[in-house]
Design goal:
The chain is an alpha+beta fold and 132 residues long. It is built from two helices and six strands, in the order αββββαββ. It has a four-stranded antiparallel sheet with strand order 4-3-2-6, with helices on one face. The chain has a two-stranded antiparallel sheet with strand order 1-5. A hairpin with a 4-residue loop joins strand 3 and strand 4 (73-76). The termini are far apart.
Length: 132
């Protein structure tokens, strides 16, 4: 009878340890999933040398820049004509060509203005590979 009592105690202890292990493992798995969702993610990836046109829409208006291959510089092709800094446009191409987020924030918000989305800026880059 004593031997049966010890077997029962060991079986109960093993069952309790198994339940604890499964509970801790499931919590760790959920934590990893949450970190993967909120972690950095690749947003855009393309070869910056294939960029042929960039459009910028903001509160001040619509601007369109095109690459002039013959002269090797960026030019304004929208209605507003002004001298453009080719280095600034090239920097935009270089920075946006391999864009990734530092942290992904998920929210269900009725007022996105809190996050700075009330005055959005749209930047479109057109490449020779895809045309968009």
């Amino acid at each position: 009878m004593k031997q049966f009592k010890w077997v029962f105690i060991l079986a109960a202890a093993a069952a309790v340890l198994l339940v604890i292990f499964l509970f801790v493992d499931s919590r760790a798995q959920k934590q990893k999933e949450r970190e993967a969702i909120g972690g950095p993610q690749q947003l855009i990836s393309f070869d910056s040398t294939t960029t042929e046109r960039i459009t910028l829409d903001n509160d001040e208006g619509h601007y369109e820049f095109g690459w002039n291959a013959a002269q090797g510089r960026w030019e304004v092709i929208s209605e507003d004509k002004f001298i453009v800094n080719s280095y600034a446009i090239a920097a935009i191409c270089n920075y946006i060509c391999d864009l990734s987020s530092e942290k992904t924030v998920s929210f269900n918000c009725e007022n996105p203005d809190v996050y700075g989305f009330d005055h959005a800026v749209t930047l479109k880059v057109y490449t020779t590979e895809t045309g968009e």
